[in-house]
Design goal:
two-stranded antiparallel ribbon, transmembrane, NADH_UbQ_OxRdtase_su1_CS, 457 residues, 3-stranded antiparallel beta sheet, mainly alpha, translocase
Amino acid sequence: MTPAQWIWTIVKLAIMIGFLINVAALLTWLDRRQSSMMQDRVGPNRAVLKIGKFELRAAGLLHTAADGLKFFFKEDFVPPNADKFLFGLAPILSMMPVLALVAVIPMGDTVLPQYLFRAASDGHTIFPAISRLGVETVRGMRPVELAVAPLNSGILFVFALAGQGIVGAAIAGWSSDNKFSLMGALRAASQMVSYEVTMGLSLIGAFMIYGTLRLDDMVRWQGENTWGVFVQPLAFFLFFAAAVAESKRIPFDLPEAESELVSGYFTEYSGMKFGMFYFAEYMEVVTSSMLLVTIFLGGWNIPFLHRDGLTIAIGDLTLVHQAIPHIWMSIIGVVVFFGKVLATCVFQAFVRWSLPRFRYDQLMKLGWRVLLPLSLANVFLTGCIYLALDKPSGEVSSGLKIAADLSQLSVALVVTFFVIRGVVGFFAPVRRQYWIVGTSANFAQARGGTETTPMQL
């Protein structure tokens, strides 16, 4: 590797790992804030940093910082009869695959370094645009793909690493010498194996449509046609459900159900070892969101923005075309990708605090009797449609192109609506409605008292 390639690799690695770790930390804060708002209760607001008369609460972020510090200083307890080697190895096996998984996920389109900027003959710096399709090597400068390790079989690498989480959970429960931990490990292993089958089969239809296993080529197909969620809507929901189950969060948190198993497979863990399990769960949320965005939500693409700039076209009719410099298109693509990932993470947190926990038998029945048959049906249906449209006529091909462009237009309009509504809501004056705060007796008295009936013997 040349020095320039080393520098690009280090920069890509720093961006992806930095984003993963920081967003996972912020998700712990988001869970507390969002759950308190949805349940109409006080959230994290008591951790205060006092500097003289100045008090800094940082909207509850200090709670997350305090928890992170406590993990480093709490006692590292190991049960006397535990297998000490496996007990210490399990948190590593749970956390490291999640970190390695982001290596194959592209955060943006291919960058051509020679087109980022160029010195003009008059001494000014110009920022050229590039063509919409294809990449090229100029003056020995190779294109830079915005993935740490762009593999031809990237999605297979993802599945290979995602399956390693089962090993960490199983070893943690077995080595702890605790019946609750062992029960949680058994639940985790059976649950993750069950839902990995659905997760893999749900993507077969997408592979048939995209015609590739490379994640970046999947994104490029969506940019030139339509987002994967429009061509594989059932696969999107199946993959999302399986991804939530793989991260072991509500409503699929049976391996660590506090009301049944204390804390499940990591009951005996404390200190930083517990912190690694806890943090790996949130990192799994981020990586699953990255995969959802890459495979189904267009990756770094936004409607009508391509490598060469803005092109608004419906079918063969081009309404607007405006070239945009390559450097700005590269930056926009990276920002769009991470913005979509953040929005997906927030939606997963919303799902967590909206649904109740399943029973374990309901969890397994959902996986084997509902999601798995649906994923097989999706593969069959996709194959039938693919064969029927393998060589479409000119009218059918034109109709599909128009439908794809209309789907992009609908996405653009919906996103614009929510952005405008969010900006207006942010600057709108706050309307406060005061309620009586007190005991249940005070509430009842304020509403006219309660009716009493004689006790039934």
